[in-house]
Please model this.
Amino acid sequence: MTSVLTNNFDIAAETLLSPASLSTDALHSILSATLASSVDYADLYFQHSMHESWVLEDGIVRDGSFNLDRGVGVRVISGEKTGFAYSDDIALPSLQQATGAARAIARQGQNKQVPILKSVDSPALYGVENPLHSWPAEKKITFLKELDALTRSVSPAVKEVTVSLNAVHDVVMVVATDGTLATDVRPLIRVNISVIVERGGRKERGSAGGGGRVNFDWLLEDNRAQGWARDAVRQGMVNLDAQAAPAGTMPVVLGPGWPGVLLHEAVGHGLEGDFNRKGTSMYARQFGQMVASEKVTVVDDGTLAFRRGSLNVDDEGVPTRCNTLIENGRLVGFMQDKMNARLMGVEPTGNGRRESYAHLPMPRMTNTYMLPGNDSPEDIIASLDRGIYAVNLGGGSVDITSGRFVFSTSEAYLVEKGKIVCPIKGATLIGGGDEVMRNISMVGNDLALDSGVGVCGKDGQSVPVGVGQPTLRVDALTVGGTA
Amino acid sequence: MSGQVIVQRPLDTGALNTLRERAERVLAEARRHGATAAEVGVSLSQGLSVTVRMGDVETLEFHRDRGISLTVYFGQRKGSASSGDDSDDSIREMVKAACAIAEHTGEDVAAGIAAAELMCANAPDLDLYHPWAISPEEAIADALRCEQAGRVDARIVNSEGASVNSGDSLRWYANSNGFSAGYPSSSHSRSCVLVAEQDGAMQRDYWYDSGRRADQLGDAESVGRKAAERTLSRLGAQRPKTGKFPVLFAPEVASGLLGHFMGAISGGSLYRNATFLKDKLGETLFPEWVTLSENPLLRGGNGSAPFDHDGLATRAQNFVEKGVLASYAVGLYASRRLAIAPTANGGGVRNLSISDSGEDQAALLRKMHTGVLVREAMGPGVNLVSGDYSRGAAGFWVENGEIQYPIEEFTIAGHLGDMYKNLAGSGTDIDDRGNVHVGSLLLSEMNVAGS
Model:
């Protein structure tokens, strides 16, 4: 872009519509052509996405890549039926063709009137600046090299260092038959440091990183990136001393921040509107009931400034909100997109998200976290007679029908009589969402959100998300160790 | 249903020529920008996907994707770029971006395209392209039959739907050492996900089939019935007790075990020093009866390809022979980092299979006598750096060689090195729906954590 635009709408119109000489009036006409009497809703999703990545490995920035993707997705909904087509060519003929294909789902008939498109107002949770351009290439290379040198200087046990730097600039516009005209300009950056440490013939990995909807300068503030580099090495060193994890069911204390993966898996997915509309989630019949310990309040909040999981508007043009899902143990809210909200007779919650123009939107999480309680983290750890204290986790997954979920530890300790005994090797922990949430007996006063690295997958679609929680104690989880 | 269809099926293989022209145009543009070498991949794919749920259509999706990816070299420095469309403007922008990146990357002695003599001279036709002339209406009817066949038992109370997918794609790869080749391929699948309930507890499971040819897929009804059978078999699941037991991995999870092995002997893991199998060439890692091999040239195979991502001719080869690690799996770049010969595994391994021990699953259950049959493994939990393995699981408790009852919410853990060494049987019940063709695998002992 050559001109300096500061407004979401102007940037989106210039990026997405101007090259094809499309106007919002033309989009209104296309929408009108989809709105046969049996059609409940249709939308067009325009997207222009730039992604840049640099990777330093073994002391050399060996590769860099740039990706450009743009296109438009057309969705037509009739009852519970959805027709979908897309084109990587943003131009009137392709749009008309995609629209023709998508509306094949609905019976044809007299067309209804599409209201005048009205701009959706939303707050600016992040800047519109393209993060790819926030640093010249030389500065990115210097940054990677300095981070590599710092990482290696932490310990002679560091054998391999990989540092990656990623930036995305996403420009989207949604127009819909309900009169929605919404735009968003979404920056997203991420840095990751991964090390292999080796000592006495034993090898372990450590990794750390973070990011958000910010530009690269943010990485230097408060020495953030340096902190992650040190943490990656620290984690690897801890794991070099790790003993075999115990096997069996025992109490588990989870640290603050990223271990909020627990909530994401144990309750988050199960509270997405589509699974509950269809009745395939175990939470579908528990609305209004106690589903967790009364110490538990969980929210999904897409409105946190600069956060990885935040959006000004979701991918259906609905402004994001802070939605309470569980309040003092009671199930009070599901996360909805427009289609599932309509079919369940409730309001959309700003959780309609899609990986790209080539994917259908679904109810998805944004930043999901548990509100703090009154316990001190020290007291919570001291409460363990024999159990696990998990400071950091890898990923997790869930079967929302049975409620069984897993996550794996990447830094954890065995605790006996309230004292940390030794670090333990990575182990998978498994539980049932229902029992585990009821078994949360202590909630810390130290709420933290993760550093901005989360990726959530559902039906083959990946979207960036955030998680968080205070330190908490679960009275019983099954630990998959070997000792 | 009416409406103009955006996807014209089948794909016109004449479009391969268009892909070739684009690839060569991109290479020329890269040369014009001063690149000393370049390589480019161009693809075009399209498909149809329908899902029905509870007896009615849920989604009808038309897919059509284009892609170009380019790597340019200026001596030993490289830069990459890709684009989702192939307009002249996008190609110019992409080439410019790749060249700009190459101005800033460091010298990498391992960087570069393959020498002409290493490249695949004549790409054989591997019979990978069998378009399925199915209309959206027919696909919907097919999916409806599939789901209906799965909803006969009253305990099947819900459904996540049945899907029919059909896709075709064209790929072209060219580089500045004169390689330029491409081929069409197809992939079709049927799947069904069902929910059963008993005593207020719900269970879900699924089944699918996939392949290059639609007429070789399990029919709609059989996929639906199998999904129902699997879902119902989970009802009334208990938790196993904690202890050390033999574990039989059903074929659908056994493929993952072999996948971890291939990951640990892949070039990328080796040169990053990120594998517990570094420097193990020539060592005995499996029992003597085990051979692990790939056959990329299998006609009609789901993983087949005539050449790898670097343009090297693929070949049938063994990675493990008589239990001994005979070869790593390395692509061109990794081979230079490791200073060994490439094995044409750029882009991974293709149609991996393991020798069987002559026993079907029933025989392996009898051999196991008492233990755990695992049919689902959950979560990441695999550390290739240390070899430690710990995953969530669901399956069946086995006694006297027979399945007793379903079990869930437990973990299985061990060290991959021990697990491979303690392989006690490899089934003839081969699952060839994916890229790994394997039957049930029996491991003599793992740590099971449950109640």
Q: What stands out?
A: The longest helix of chain A spans residues 137-154.
